[in-house]
Amino acid sequence: MAGLKPTLETLHFDNLALQLLPVDHSALVTQRQVHGACFSKVQPTPVVNPRTVCVSLSALNLLDIGESEMMRQEFVQYFSGNRILPGSETAAHCYCGHQFGYFSGQLGDGAAMYLGEILNEKGERWEIQLKGAGKTPYSRSADGRKVLRSSIREFLCSEAIHHLGIPTTRAGSCITSDSLVERDIYYNGNPKQEQCTIVLRIAPTFLRFGSFEIFKPVDNQTQYEGPSVGRTDILLTLLDYTIEHFYPLIWKQQWKKKREMYLEFYTEVVRRTARLVAEWQCVGWCHGVLNTDNMSIVGVTIDYGPFGFMDKYNPYFVCNASDDGGRYSYKKQPEICKWNCQKLAEAIQDAVPLSKTEPVLNLFDEEFDRHYTMKMRKKFGLKKEQTQDRELFNSFFETLERTAADFTNCFRYLSNFPLPGLSDYEEKKADVIKYFVSQSSTVAELKKVNRVRYENSQLMLYLMLAESRPEMIPNLRKVMPEIVQELNKMERLKELKDLTDESLSQKSFERWSAWFEKFALRLQLEKADVSDLNSLSEERKKIMNSVNPKFVLRNYIAQNAIAAAEKGDYSEVRKVLKLLETPYDDDVPDLNALELNGLMENESHTGQAGCHAQRIIYDEKPPEWAFDLRVT
């Protein structure tokens, strides 16, 4: 009836992808190559005693699911995979991917299941998935399950990135259970039983670059090929489907000129991807696994695994402890995303030749620089464009790196730096410099950050090998960046050997004082021809605080919530979600100070419950135990 809100049983599914793209209807869930299909029909595997860890009201509202429906017991049954929603058709998506630079052949949804597409009351179409719902033909040797810790991280970060204003998939619910799976977290022979947990994921589509790599011929390096190699008919169908439904303006303008349409589509994907990674860089966020199968075809953040927000600024920050070569470091993310765009061009070359797409790839750098510079000017409170602004930004990052200061907190506090000429300029300037020094690292922290993982003899062996046998250098390419970083760490440790906290603090003070002199000179240009400095100051602060978050999902915040949830207390996850829903707000009542829940000081720092029992202010520098957290 008109005017009635949908119930879980009356959601408007239309499942367009399964109607318009080829589907494999085999009932075999065993590992196999799936030829000539974009999806395989599958069924979720039920779990024992499912229960809700957390829900996102705003994400579920996209599906017209109201709060009363979330409270029903059926909600847990539907979104754990124990029951199928009326109108839902469950399937797993077939895709390939370049993983850590090498083509890996067929991958696919090994732990995710398409539930269908829902048309909401606004006419928006949203694809929904369950992640962790059991085996599919793409699970390979795995069990198709996800566990509580990884699911909480994905749930919270999906919502955190959304509320930061960055395009992303959403997370509607996180549901755990009494079903158990065995996981060896660090692959060190110490497995443990963990709870099967399922996340409801929401996006316009979960198509990715790797969706178009199922047509790839044999790769010269790995000898893998896509399962639908030679099926140009399916490639064209997939392209047309993607453009018509997710790039409708391009479809409307170009559908009669297919080659021009495909080129314009590729151009827009390159631009969206460049803007997306610029957004990540501006909040100090690392994806961790930027393989082509983790790159969204509509330019949103997708597949949250070993991600990480930087604490101390380090351009070579690697959030994924499995990324030994640092391929997906913070600094390299733009370069890698551009490389992935090149792989997408290769994947669709039977529809639009590389001679047409290669020039388009050059737009990536242009779009990235434009968007990054625009966001950075806002972060520094600069309204007037000046050619020397990039130099100012770079000198800020250099000072951040040399002092190993906190990325998020320093950017947030930057809005407190006064305009030259205000009556309290000197007093406020001194206060800001003092704060920046407090956010810089101590000697003990720097020693911890610069711990060398290799023995001296190992490093020397690598270097001797490279020098004596140059022909081996291509084989060492994967580890060489890491070796250089380790040598740099050794040099830093030598410098720190006789350094005291007092002398280090003085150095930090001198460095920040020098940078703020540059900043003050730049701000002189901002106030030129302005009569009301107080109004300009307030306007700048408002702009800066709208793009420099106070709260982000730091690893220790996530770990604290996970450790509590693993003991059956989900309140911390829900509190952190509320915190992350307003990342730019100063006033967050009852959430600024959250107590760790029963964590013992002597628990081991293994990346699980290794935390100190103390009160933590969530917008301060991370506690010392946070340096020991590792995410793989």
Automatic annotation (TrEMBL):
Protein name in the entry: Selenoprotein O
The UniProt entry, under PANTHER family, shows: PROTEIN ADENYLYLTRANSFERASE SELO, MITOCHONDRIAL (PTHR12153:SF15), SELENOPROTEIN O (PTHR12153)
Biological classification of the source = Eukaryota, Metazoa, Spiralia, Lophotrochozoa, Mollusca
What does this protein need as cofactor? Mg(2+)
Coiled coil located at which positions?
A: none
Family, according to the entry, reads as follows: Belongs to the SELO family.
Q: Which organism is it from?
A: Biomphalaria glabrata (Bloodfluke planorb)
Record keyword GTP-binding present = no
Q: Give one Pfam hit by family name.
A: SelO
> Nucleotide-binding: is it a keyword of this entry?
yes
Molecular-function annotations in GO: ATP binding; metal ion binding; nucleotidyltransferase activity
Q: Which UniProt keywords apply?
A: ATP-binding, Magnesium, Metal-binding, Nucleotide-binding, Nucleotidyltransferase, Transferase
Q: InterPro entries, from UniProt?
A: SelO
